[in-house]
Design brief:
With about 90 residues, the protein is mainly β. The protein is globular, with a radius of gyration of 14 Å.
């Protein structure tokens, strides 16, 4: 199956792992290339995409323990706060 897209940022995948690393992969010249990778931290329990309504969901939000962090599609952290919850955030 061939895909013909005019913009390269359509082909990006974000992955959060048990080591607390968030990685974003993009397609460049037909091959997967890392766009950004964060440093290890707490185990990531939830990863969601978000943004302004009726626009592409380009913000990456993760929950790790009782902390919420937000990243742009280029990997810049724009949000980080610790909640007062005693349990880990799962949803």
């Amino acid at each position: 199956m061939d895909l013909t897209l005019s913009r390269a940022d359509y082909l990006q995948v974000v992955v959060g792992d048990q080591d607390g690393v968030v990685m974003c992969f993009g397609m460049k010249k037909g091959e997967a290339a890392a766009v950004f990778k964060t440093l290890p931290g707490q185990k990531i329990a939830r990863l969601e995409l978000g943004g302004v309504l009726n626009t592409p969901q380009e913000k990456i939000f993760i929950a790790a323990g009782s902390e919420i962090r937000g990243f742009t599609k280029r990997g810049k952290q724009f949000l980080s706060f610790e909640t007062n919850l005693t349990e880990s955030i799962k949803a």
